[in-house]
UniProtKB/TrEMBL annotation, chain A:
Protein name in UniProt: Multifunctional fusion protein
Domain of life: Bacteria
Lineage: Bacteria, Pseudomonadati, Pseudomonadota, Alphaproteobacteria, Sphingomonadales
GO biological process: hydrogen sulfide biosynthetic process; sulfate assimilation
SUPFAM superfamilies named among the record's database cross-references: EF-Tu/eEF-1alpha/eIF2-gamma C-terminal domain, P-loop containing nucleoside triphosphate hydrolases, Translation proteins
Residue span(s) of domain Tr-type G: 29-243
Active site per the UniProt annotation: S554 (phosphoserine intermediate)
Pathway(s) per entry: Sulfur metabolism; hydrogen sulfide biosynthesis; sulfite from sulfate: step 1/3; Sulfur metabolism; hydrogen sulfide biosynthesis; sulfite from sulfate: step 2/3
Uppermost EC category: transferase
Quaternary structure and partners: Heterodimer composed of CysD, the smaller subunit, and CysN. Sulfate-activating enzymes, NodP and NodQ, may be physically associated.
GO molecular function, one term: adenylylsulfate kinase activity
From TrEMBL, chain B:
GTP-binding found in the keyword field: no
Protein name, per record: Sulfate adenylyltransferase subunit 2
Catalytic activity: sulfate + ATP + H(+) = adenosine 5'-phosphosulfate + diphosphate
Gene that this sequence comes from: cysD
Family: Belongs to the PAPS reductase family. CysD subfamily.
The protein's enzyme class: transferase
Record key words, sorted: ATP-binding, Nucleotide-binding, Nucleotidyltransferase, Transferase
Species, as recorded: Croceicoccus ponticola
Record keyword Transferase present: yes
Domain of life according to the entry: Bacteria
Positions of the UniProt region annotated as Disordered: 278-301
UniProt cross-references to NCBIfam families, sorted A to Z: CysD, PRK05253.1, PRK12563.1
Ranges of residues in domain Phosphoadenosine phosphosulphate reductase: 28-254
The organism's taxonomic lineage, starting at the top: Bacteria, Pseudomonadati, Pseudomonadota, Alphaproteobacteria, Sphingomonadales
GO molecular function, a single term: sulfate adenylyltransferase (ATP) activity
């Protein structure tokens, strides 16, 4: 290895001789993004540190700090510990492991590189998928002493899953197996057999030592039997997949409508595929309207042509309806539009996926509500086996159907011909309550039923039906603990409404479970489906003009919010029947609390299943302060707007 | 004709995309403007992102009253040229207590910058703030997201960051929470300089070498920018040909001796030099190992 005391800076001679010429060359460099993946102790951080060091991206003061750190906390004795350059956060330095995705930069004479350093241990699938999502190439590290491990399979599978085409198999720590050719060849053969199983047909294997520097940037004298490129040579010459975007039809998701004055209306976005010129015919998706490109406006002047990878502002010849979320596309080859899909989903949150729950789905610049069915199967990332699954836990990967609340423009993440559509095929899922990014996914295709089932236009409108009844439709959504008094009060409310000639209907939790929902139990998933069905029924009844009263525990905020979203603006009235647990339990009208306490009844709200108190209900009824009659009066007054 | 985009074109397009996403998805964004070269690039990208409209948010300068005079001059001009509102915030308490870098050490940065920033964000109810930090500057920054969430008290939790996939950014947040956005996360120092050169972006003249009065303190060359600088016994400012690689409060910012008077020369010197950029800043040396990470958890940008 290089002498640490006298680091050799391989400064480009051109910098000193003719800086302008150097800059001109540098300005035309392309960019490659790649990830390194390996297990703990495979030497990932050391390899990246070595690449930074060899491409002179480490300054003297950093090197001094590195030398001091290496002696203090390093794991390489008196020698320099390159891993310390890369392991950023104090917490992980203490643990001696990398815990998150970190991005590194270095430049050679040919390219600029962005490296995502992703951790290799079991619980961090999400980090690797995150790092891989923007990568053109993956370096899969293998410890020459250990060979192809379960982790190697996992990393390869994940790289392939997000569509990375360029795979480098870096057989590391060759110094520790005395640069033995047969050890290397055995590993490459093992890997080739495995890779073929998951659809990786092509990869580049290189024997290296990140620690000693063999075949990283300089060809090693220790491996005379190897005549392929060094790792750096390969990284500098491999074809960048971003160029493939150019061959696609034109597509640009609209981010922002630029409207400085009445005379200018431009649509700003990052072009995700193809090229565009003034005069090109375009189609706005999902609306389907067509127009012609008038101009491509940028700060540096109007362009005669723009291409994938550029951020521009486009003006059109017609005043068509186009806003954030729309996609402007080549008129003869627009993306598809659908609201039901099959997708691969990677779960990224501690709280498991709840089938049926409504999440935000963000795809390109479109954000819609979406819910997932129970997975068709989950994938064991170690064996690639398909497993039966009811949900997806943190770091689980599965295939599931999903439904969005309105149609979105999309393309399959991987086309049949192998084309990747990351922008219009990749999505994230966001929890509506915590706002965390809980999952990421890749659309496979639209489900046929979504294409064939159309909305039937009704001649008699909901307004007409409500008008005939001389009332405003509402959903009075009672929520509260078991025994809080929901059904009692709901009954009284309905009686009063009936007496006043209002057309109402009471949907009661217990009753519905005897019929419509008799196939559902009390797991979280079933509870969500229970509420979803009741919500849909309630919504249909409001279409018919009714005032719907419902009495369900409905313990989760997210589902109450889901029903609110189903209803027309202002029609959903959340009525929180607020009875303390101690009071409800003391009443215990149906003897359920007793059973739950005895352990005979599982998942009982308030006992071993949570109740999420409404944060801003339209009405809060404190049953310790008023009688059921008073409560009913109060609610009726509210409904009728008195 | 379609061709492979250069790395600078890709970086520019990515940054513009990020800036537009923030404007589309947050209620009240602001751009923190420190007048340095990174801020200059970020501001230029904002102008490009929204042209022909001016950027639809104000600039915020969290002032310490101790910046170089030349920085104040460019600050006002740059905001005017961009057609943007410039908000200047100075921490009143720090002003009253006369907090300064000579007598108060780390407290100076803490009160003027960290506290000042929090106060300003609270005062204007900004829910999103652009910052010009780059991942190549410092190790803890290498792991920070482009969209970085702050609690209602402005704290950063490095272990609870949202995954960022593809170029999809999740800007959803609860009331009171805010986001710091780093549109030039993936730029390196060389990228910044080249972009400044290619786009002819105006930067503070202090980045270019000129004879300036300096004293040598604790191994740093400190420029005597105004009469508030107390001279120690035996200290006599001398004129030396110097320039700055980073800019901050003048008493805390070390100059380098240099003859680089043009952008090309500055870039050449940067490429040939062997010390990293932040070394000229006294601020990173306060608490030794992991000090920036600690500052960020407390709310420093």
């Amino acid at each position: 290895m290089n002498d640490v005391q006298n680091p050799i800076y391989k400064t480009d001679a051109l910098i000193a001789e003719d800086i302008d010429k150097y800059l001109d060359a540098h300005q035309h460099k392309t960019m490659l993004r790649f990830i390194t993946c390996g297990s703990v102790d495979d030497g990932k951080s050391t390899l990246i540190g070595r690449l930074l060091y060899d491409s002179k991206m480490i300054f003297e003061d950093q090197l001094e700090a590195l030398q001091a750190d290496s002696k203090r906390v390093g794991t390489q004795g008196q020698e320099i510990d390159f891993a310390l350059l890369v392991d950023g956060l104090a917490a992980e330095r203490e643990q001696g492991i990398t815990i998150d995705v970190a991005y590194r930069f270095f430049t050679t004479e040919k390219r600029k590189f962005i490296v995502a350093d992703t951790p290799g241990h079991e619980q961090y699938t999400r980090n690797m998928v995150t790092g891989a999502s923007t990568a053109d190439l993956a370096v899969i590290l293998i410890d020459a002493r250990k060979g192809v491990l379960v982790q190697t399979r996992r990393h390869s599978y994940l790289a392939q899953l997000v569509g990375i085409r360029n795979i480098v198999l870096a057989v590391n720590k060759m110094d520790l197996v005395d640069y033995d050719q047969s050890a290397y060849l055995d590993i490459v053969q093992d890997y080739r057999e495995f890779a073929a199983q998951i659809g990786i047909t092509d990869f580049t294997a290189i024997p290296i030592s990140g620690f000693k520097g063999d075949n990283v940037t300089d060809r090693s004298a220790n491996t005379p039997w190897y005549d392929g490129p060094t790792l750096m040579e390969h990284l500098e010459s491999v074809e960048v997949s971003a160029d493939a975007d150019l061959a696609k039809p034109f597509r640009m998701p609209v981010q922002w409508v630029n409207r400085p004055n009445l005379d200018f209306r431009g649509f700003s976005g990052l072009i995700s595929g193809g090229t565009v010129k003034p005069g090109d015919a375009v189609r706005i998706v999902p609306s389907g309207k067509t127009s012609t490109v008038k101009s491509i406006v940028t700060f540096d002047g109007d362009l005669t042509e723009a291409q994938a990878g550029q951020s521009v502002t486009i003006t059109l010849d017609d005043e068509v309806d186009c806003s954030r979320g729309s996609v402007i596309a080549a008129a003869d080859s627009p993306p598809q539009v659908a609201d039901q899909f099959e997708a691969t989903v990677v779960w990224m949150a501690d709280e498991a996926l709840l089938p049926g729950r409504s999440y935000w789905l963000k795809l390109a610049t479109q954000t819609v509500s979406a819910s997932l069915q129970a997975p068709k199967y989950a994938v064991d990332v170690n064996t690639m086996e398909h497993l039966a699954a009811k949900t997806l836990d943190l770091n689980a990967i599965g295939v599931a159907e999903l439904v969005t609340d309105k149609p979105i423009a999309f393309l399959p993440y991987k086309d049949e011909d192998g084309t990747l559509n990351k922008t219009l095929g990749g999505f994230i899922l966001i929890d509506k309550i915590t706002n965390q990014t809980v999952g990421a996914g890749m659309l496979h295709f639209a489900l046929r039923r979504s294409q064939n089932v159309h909305w039937q236009a009704l001649d008699i409108t909901r307004e007409a039906r409500a008008g005939m009844k001389n009332q405003e439709p509402k959903v009075l959504w009672f929520t509260g603990l078991s025994g809080s008094g929901k059904s009692t009060i709901a009954n009284l409310v309905e009686k009063r409404l009936h007496r006043m000639n209002r057309h109402s209907f009471l949907l009661d939790g217990d009753n519905v479970r005897h019929g419509l929902n008799k196939d559902l139990g009390f797991t979280d998933t079933d509870r969500i489906e229970n509420i979803r069905r009741v919500g849909e029924v309630a919504r249909l009844m409001t279409d018919a003009g009714l005032i719907v009263v419902t009495a369900f525990i409905s313990p989760f905020r997210a589902e109450r919010e889901m029903v609110r979203q189903m209803c027309a603006e202002g029609e959903f009235v959340e009525v929180f029947i607020d009875t303390p647990l101690s009071v409800a339990e003391e009443r215990d009208v149906k003897g359920l609390y007793k059973k739950a306490r005895a352990g005979d009844l599982k998942n009982f709200t308030g006992i071993d299943s949570p109740y999420e108190v409404p944060e801003a209900p339209e009405l809060r009824i404190d049953t310790t302060k008023m009688t059921a009659e008073e409560a009913a009066d109060r609610i009726v007054e509210y409904v009728l707007g008195w | 004709m379609a061709r492979a985009l250069t790395h600078l074109e890709r970086l520019e397009a990515e940054s513009i995309h990020i800036i537009r996403e923030v404007v589309a998805e947050t209620d009240n964004p602001v751009m923190l403007y420190s007048v340095g070269k990174d801020s200059a690039v970020m501001l230029h990208l904002a102008k490009k992102a929204f042209y022909p409209s001016p950027p639809p948010f104000p600039l915020l300068h969290v002032d310490t009253t101790w910046k170089f005079k030349a920085m104040y001059d460019l600050r006002d001009k740059a905001a005017k040229d961009a057609g943007m509102e410039l908000l200047v915030y100075q921490n009143e308490e720090a002003k009253e207590r006369g907090i300064n870098p000579f007598d108060h050490g780390p407290l100076h940065t803490d009160m003027w910058k960290t506290e000042g920033l929090k106060q300003a964000l609270n005062l204007y109810n900004f829910d999103a703030a652009f910052g010009g930090a780059r991942r190549d500057e410092e190790k803890s920054r290498a792991k920070e997201r482009v969209f970085s969430f702050r609690s209602a008290s402005h704290g950063w939790d490095p272990k609870n960051q949202r995954p960022e996939l593809w170029n999809l950014y999740n800007a959803k947040k609860a009331k009171g929470e805010s986001i710091r956005i780093f549109p030039i996360s993936n730029w390196t120092e060389l990228d910044i300089w080249q972009y400044i050169q290619l786009n002819k972006i105006e930067i503070v003249p202090l980045y270019f070498s000129a004879p300036r009065p300096v004293v040598e303190r604790d191994g740093l060359l400190i420029m005597v920018d105004d009469e508030r600088m107390p001279l120690k016994d035996g200290e006599v400012p001398e004129m030396r040909s110097i320039r700055f690689r980073t800019l901050g409060c003048y008493p805390l910012t070390g100059a380098v001796e240099s003859e680089a008077a043009t952008l090309s020369e500055v870039i050449q010197e940067m490429l040939l030099t062997t010390t990293s950029e932040r070394q000229g800043r006294a601020i990173d040396k306060d608490a030794g190992d992991g000090s920036m990470e600690k500052k960020k958890q407390e709310g420093y940008f």
